[in-house]
Amino acid sequence: MKYRKGLSLMMCTGLLLAATACGSSGNNGNKESKGTEEGAKAPAATTAAVTESDSKPELKSLNLWSKDDYNTYPLAKVIEEQTGYKVKYEMLPADKAMDKLNLLISSGEPYDVITISGEKAVYTDYAKMGALVDLGPLIDEFGPNIKASISEASFDAMKVNGKIYAIPNSSSQFAGADLMIRQDWLDKLGLKMPTTLDEFTAVLKAFKEKDPGGNGSNSAPMSIDGALATTANITGAFGIATSWNQVDGKLVPTPLHPGFKEYLTYMSDLYKQGLLDKEFAVNKDATLKEKFTSGKVGVIQLPWYDIPGIADALAVNFPDAKFAYLPALKGKDGQMGLGMSGGFDRITFIPKSAKHPEDAIKWINAKLEKETFKLIAIGEEGKHHTFKDGVYSPILPLFTDERGNASNYLTGIDEKLYPIYWQARVQKDARLFAGFSFLNNELPAEARISDPLALAPSLPEYSKSNASLGQMINDFAVKVIVGEESPDAVTTFVEKYNAAGGEASVKEVNDWYAASAK
Q1: How far is CA 230 from CA 10, 261, 269, 488, in A?
Q2: Model-level pTM?
Q3: 3-state helix, strand and coil shares in percent for the chain, rounded to the nearest 5
């Protein structure tokens, strides 16, 4: 990670200054809050009556970048009314956000609450360097709603040296992407939806030979994004549904999985037969979508949240076009799977420089009172949403106008109820919900594979090498598929992968995995 370079020296200097200026910020915050409460109890003759809201200090919160001003968005006022805390919101820049955050942390900027994206390595560095408040005692004393809303497993993933320094927003687990196919092409050729890898290959050959899109003999029926050469659903047919999968009781990354060579062999065969777009290696996301909506290809990988845009563009060019997600394709021995998201969407912590750590926890706790949390997440029934047959549906456009950015204000979630509330967001468009529902409600449960590292704690070796190793895997996969490398080169590639940090990552991941199973 680029932002980590030079961080230690910079932060040590900043933290020393912050510690000198602030002393024990946790104690200062507690004394300040308690002193205010005592003042409220003083006789009217000597001290003016102080209301509960007046006794609460204004908090200062730093958040992720948003196109809307946090302070003027309708939810800010709702949260203030519900919690009694006035909050001044600031945001990180859209570009080089972590560079800016590093400067703010090292200089001891007195934010009471900071919320960042779910990269655990970032806050772990801060915690290890003494930049964050240990939240355990504060949550025990002032956070009953926090403890009731967030699972022990999620808090375990946040621990650094046995202590909790952050409150997580766990991501809802769902399958996010699949292969999308032109259903009208299947219908035109009298073909059934393929359910196995062999049937899928046969469909691609039929699209190539019979050309239902009228693209000519030089066209290819399927295309993929060059940056995503390990394609969802197809990898699942080889037992590789997520980046790490269980093999013989251990977690192995994609290059070490026995199905990786078979996957590369299959994809390179598609390429040789003209069934995979010859230009896929240089495709960007926008290029891939344009090829599908212009009728040049009949199969692409597509996240469900991109369905409305694709549907609109396709309808302009082909008003009668139909499309559908493929079921989880079965490979040999019935292997199948689509990987599910997981982990954490956002992480909230309190820096040592905070003026009001106790009140920050009280504020977070108040937001997690059940009815308050529901109001923040999806608004009022009959105004922002409806509830029928166990389903929350948005009332548009007010839901989007006043709750579209609700996730930016969440500092911890009700892990049992939020996944249910959250689905109101995918009901904004019937086509969007149909795609989401197919992947997450209609596919068999055994076809949806959870990420085994979703709730892992920060793993230094893994975090340090994960991005670069992922790029190595993609680059190698592209070379094999286009014929620059043989699938047999996997053995040599694994050696390079291990030397570049893969071996250390595998050991670290499996040490944690074995310990967590005890």
Answers
A1: 39, 12, 15, 17
A2: 0.82
A3: 50, 15, 35
